Amino acid sequence: MYKVSTAQMWVHDQDQALEFYTKKLGMEVRQDVTMPQMGNFRWLTVGPVSQPDISIVLMPIPGPPVMDADTAEQVETLMAKGFAGTVFLTTDDVQAEYEQLKSRGVEFTEEPEERPYGIDSGFRDPSGNSFRLTQVRDLG
Amino acid sequence: MQFVPPARHLLRAKDLADARYFEPLDVDDLARAAGLSRAHFSREFRRAFGESPHAYLLTRRLERAAALLRGTDRSVADICLSVGLQSIGSFTTSFTRTFGVSPTAYRARFPPAADWAMVPTCVLRFYGRPGNSTFREDN
Predict the structure, then answer these.
(1) Which end of chain B is flanked by fewer CB atoms within 10 Å, N or C?
(2) Which residues of A touch B123 (CB under 8 A)?
(3) Angle formed by the axes of helices B53-71 and B6-20, to 10°?
(4) Chain centroid to CA A85
(5) Residue A54 belongs to what H/E stretch?
(6) In chain B, what residues touch A69 (CB-CB under 8 Å)?
(7) pLDDT reported for residue B8
(8) Which of A5, A31, A38 sits opposite B71 (nearest CB)?
(9) B51 vs B70: CA distance, rounded Å
(10) In which band, very low, low, confident or very high, does the pLDDT at B69 lie, cut at 50, 70 and 90?
(11) Which residues are CB-neighbours of B11 under 8 A, at least 6 positions away?
(12) What average pLDDT does this structure show over A10-25?
């Protein structure tokens, strides 16, 4: 059976994203390679310390000829409006995690709140991508 | 006041080393996180975790540096700074003592980072395209 290994997120600025994902969210850099033969395309992946086999690609929005200018602008706009996707994180202690991330300057859109499935909170990355941070209720 | 096992304070310092190794942290910062004097902290930390806080923090940094040497094409100097160490000279010395080879030699033992990068063929195909040169082919 297969496993989820890597998922991709668009970011509007890789350096800014890198700073956010590592210094604020505390993820690790997994791969950071610039390829001169591909117009200096930079393959940049990060992942949570606790899950060495799962990574997120921080993918720059390409310009022409890879992506036409209109589409690139649409992707950037979707992302800035918060409609480009969500990463769902879980934790054993959402309050502690929330305090820690907030102290590092992560802007929460939703503070931890009780929900039927657990305690849920939300924040965004600098590009507008949405994150959930949830302490899932033990239903067992 | 609620009782907290003393080791919990030491763990706070250890967590800080693991999480913020890339900042200019030192043993004084770790002792502060544990709320103990430096001398007392170092002794207690070693008793609880089997190595000095200095060694623990340095090992964390070197372990991350090794991962970055394998997984990225960043320069040794960049990697040194990005794991919270300031001096390239002492970084090279500590790295060599720990891994038996210099950072550059360590990197050379592995395939280039670009070989590991799982860039999907669809991305390669797109980014590998030469710029527009139409030679009237689209007429």
Answers:
(1) N
(2) 41
(3) 30
(4) 9
(5) none
(6) none
(7) 84
(8) A31
(9) 26
(10) very high
(11) none
(12) 96
